[in-house]
Amino acid sequence: MPFAATGASGESEPFDTSPETPPEASLFSSPAALADRLAELVALESPPGALGPLNHCADLVADWGTAVLGRPFRRVVRDGLPHLLWPAADQRILMLGHYDTVWPKGTIDDWPFAVADGRATGPGVLDMKAGIVQMFAALASLPDPSRVAVLLTCDEETGSVTSRPLIEEQAMRSGAVLVCEPGTPDGRLKIARKGGSVYRLTARGRAAHAGVEPHLGINATVELAHHVLSVRSLADEERGTSVTPTVLSGGTTTNTVPELATLTIDVRAWTRSELVRVDAALRGLVPQLDGAALELGGGVNRYPLDPEVSLPLAELAQRTAKALGMEPPGAAYAPGASDGNFTAALGVPTLDGLGAVGAGAHARGEYIELAAMPGRIALLAGLVERMLDTAQSQFMQPQLVRSQLVQSQLVQSHPAQSHLAAAHSAGRAG
User: In the CATH hierarchy, which fold is given to the domain comprising 195-301?
Assistant: First the structure.
């Protein structure tokens, strides 16, 4: 393939010198072809839960994947949602991503795919349609991708409710997982992600006429008001734990004492122990008004992606970049969660952030740097080849890799780093 990776010297160096480009690779054979594929994919909107658009987008992605991998795919439909899987008989690596976006149908009409000043924009271009294009381009450059599986889901942006069992099943069949979510704006890989929980706190009271007999009622909204600030106080800024009351609703009419009110609570933390601490505190809440009742629904959705699971692969990626004459990518802690949290929680070596370089995910105006695509493709392809090499078999075992490199220079500082390092040293981090 005629891509070139830009080395530390600034010169372009080919990462595949095969004399002929196979037909399947021609879909991704040049920077112009990459931009064309990206434009195609962004033009096919894939809003959360929209079965029609999701299936149309899935059709295009399925055609690409089958052409590149040369083997049939499975359309795994769960609650009507089409997830795409190319399993491998001797499955060593799982490439993981999603093709749904946060953008509602029709967004493309007033914000179409566009390229200006070397940046491509459009709904979902960064998160993570460019990552899908790069994934298939990397696979197309491999001499033999038969030991690499691909799973592309369509409900990641809404919590991966239907795809999680499939993700975990395929991760357990694999020696390692490579997640093609976007990297940081400066191209760093993601070796740690916060875990997250979502709760729904419901207060039940008694309705009464607000003007005539308010004293006969038990105000569910007032009950929840007692808990909003106490819930928020569970956050621990020093450890990077956020506990955020988000959606609050209560009552039916302006002249009725509310008998029902609900509060949604978002929790994010770097460590499993912090998620457990907050969970226990929320489950210990007690009513403040006589006669009121509380119910708590929800719980932990994703445990954190632990750097112990990622660092060996991140260092291998750095060595791969050096061998390609590229600047080795740094590593970062990312507050947001991904499906990589699921695979890492199983103890499967997982490296995230291997997708596009850009910024503004989930914001109108998200963009990617087109010039960075060939280098990211070269890095991903080179990393896969090294992982499949028998000399790198220590990275291919489907159990937790206990690295001693938690305080490696790979890791850039973040507010919770010292707590994470201490927890790892004590063997307490999950």
Answer: Alpha-Beta Plaits (3.30.70)
Of 358, 380, 353, whose CA–CA distance to 369 is shortest?
Answer: 358
pLDDT by residue (tens digit) across 63-99?
A: 999 999 999 999 999 999 999 999 999 999 999 999 9
Could you state, in order of their start, the residue ranges of all structural domains in the chain?
4-193+304-395, 195-301
Report if pTM > 0.85: no
Query: CA–CA separation, 82 vs 166, rounded Å?
Result: 12
Q: How far apart are CA 147 and CA 83, in angstroms?
A: 20
Long-range contacts of 407-412 (CB under 8 A, 24+ apart): 408/311, 408/315, 410/191, 410/311, 410/314, 410/315, 410/318, 410/330, 410/331, 411/191, 411/307, 411/311, 411/331, 411/333, 412/188, 412/330, 412/331, 412/332, 412/333
Contacts of 245 (CB under 8 A, 6+ apart): 228, 231, 232, 263, 264, 265
- Rg from Cα positions in the chain: 24
CATH class label, 4-193+304-395 = alpha beta
The pLDDT tens digits for 202-259 are: 999 999 999 999 999 999 999 999 999 999 999 999 999 999 999 999 999 999 999 9
pLDDT tens track for 274-317: 999 999 999 999 999 999 999 999 999 999 999 999 999 999 99
CB distance 318 to 207 below 8 Å: no
CA distances from 200 to 155, 158, 281 (A): 21, 16, 14
Tokens (6 digits) for 348: 């499967």
Q: Is the peptide bond before 128 cis (omega within 30 degrees of 0)?
A: yes
Strands 350-351 and 176-179 come out as parallel
Residue whose pair of structure tokens reads 């994919």 in the numeric block: 41
For the stretch 372-394, pLDDT in tens is 999 999 999 999 999 998 655 56
CB count in 10 Å sphere of residue 18 = 12
Report residue 214: phi and psi, to 5°: -60, -25
* Alpha-carbon gap, residue 333 to 345, rounded angstroms: 16
